[in-house]
User: Fold Dihydroneopterin aldolase from Natrarchaeobaculum aegyptiacum.
Amino acid sequence: MSDRDPTPAEALCFEAGIKFGTLYHQFAGTPVSPASADSLATAMEDAIENQPHCRSVTVDVRHDELEAAVADGAAEYVELTGRFLEVEIVVDENEGLEVVTRMEMDGGYPLMTVETVRETSAGDASDR
Amino acid sequence: MSDRDPTPAEALCFEAGIKFGTLYHQFAGTPVSPASADSLATAMEDAIENQPHCRSVTVDVRHDELEAAVADGAAEYVELTGRFLEVEIVVDENEGLEVVTRMEMDGGYPLMTVETVRETSAGDASDR
Amino acid sequence: MSDRDPTPAEALCFEAGIKFGTLYHQFAGTPVSPASADSLATAMEDAIENQPHCRSVTVDVRHDELEAAVADGAAEYVELTGRFLEVEIVVDENEGLEVVTRMEMDGGYPLMTVETVRETSAGDASDR
Amino acid sequence: MSDRDPTPAEALCFEAGIKFGTLYHQFAGTPVSPASADSLATAMEDAIENQPHCRSVTVDVRHDELEAAVADGAAEYVELTGRFLEVEIVVDENEGLEVVTRMEMDGGYPLMTVETVRETSAGDASDR
Assistant:
């Protein structure tokens, strides 16, 4: 068994995970309807982009799924949960490291994954 | 001691309270900066207006307070809490009853109060 | 149309609503399983009882419903939502006024209602 | 520039981050007092331990800090925020990989970090 410090890429993947947990659990449960979903998605993007290392957050509302849920439900709105969203979060680090992460539904569960670890050359990173 | 059912005005004040508790505790803790505060305020209004009996929600960001907190803090953003907001929520009931409620800072505590109970005549209510 | 200040009973119903909105939207979305539900229910009771005017909060977990949802789902846990709970909140005011409120499922929707407004005589209230 | 899939350790650090973001933003804003803090800490541990790959969650309440904040404040309770907690979360993967993460106050900011990446024998890990 060996114990070691995290690599820069591991530390950055940890940061990306924080953003996903924040986004999901800050906003899960919010009353949402087809008409209000887009302002909520914008606020989610803007809120999470405040966090350190967060280059971009893209929240896409799954409008078909949301409309179907409202049609099935007992009210004109539902509570926000992962099945109504697809999310991409990109985090970066100034030494030319970038991590692309995503949340998509997978077998009924909102699965969050690291899609790509991108290491740029020092030259590529220098203009950031 | 006497037990009785609530009056329509009492039931509507209960509804107004639900909206305030929802608004506050759904969004408290959200990362917020001077640049992201307005999209969050809009999303809060749109989300809570989905709830039953909710005629209007107005969320005003206290930008001076928010800018001062960010200047004092260890990061470029802070967590949303009541001191950064003033909120008015109006709920109504179809029999000509309306309740106006408000959250404002009072001695360091975000105080939520019923400001006005408004009873309209049947005629006033008929065009809604 | 007439505008007036709230009665003490209306103001107390507003307080009760705040507690319900807080309880629901603070904790909705929490990962919950049959094994972890009871500690969450206890924490919900203790947290909300901190709020002003809150005499008692009772959160009952609907274990059958929760176990069925976990059995149907893609994971060993689900996100907390109203269908897994029954809640009673009692608020009071020192002038001998008490309001009993409840959340129960009603046609697939977690309905929150004022059950009873209780006015005690001055004598009953004096020993509190 | 090179794009690659995450290593198992990177994917596990991402998982650890999700747990931290969940813990923080699910519970931030909860009304908390010295008397209610411990049941909340227990519920936080039990809730997050439901999530995949989560071996253990330890939430320690900083009681001195909490008591000082209540003494300074306008109410008998405060809203939960990072300064009242120290948290350790350990995640693991069944092929001999473990990540230890921690949240502690650092210059007024609740800093979340990966403390240790622990690999048990290379042979155990090599088949992934």
In short: Chain D has a mean pLDDT of 93. Chain D has one domain: 8-120.
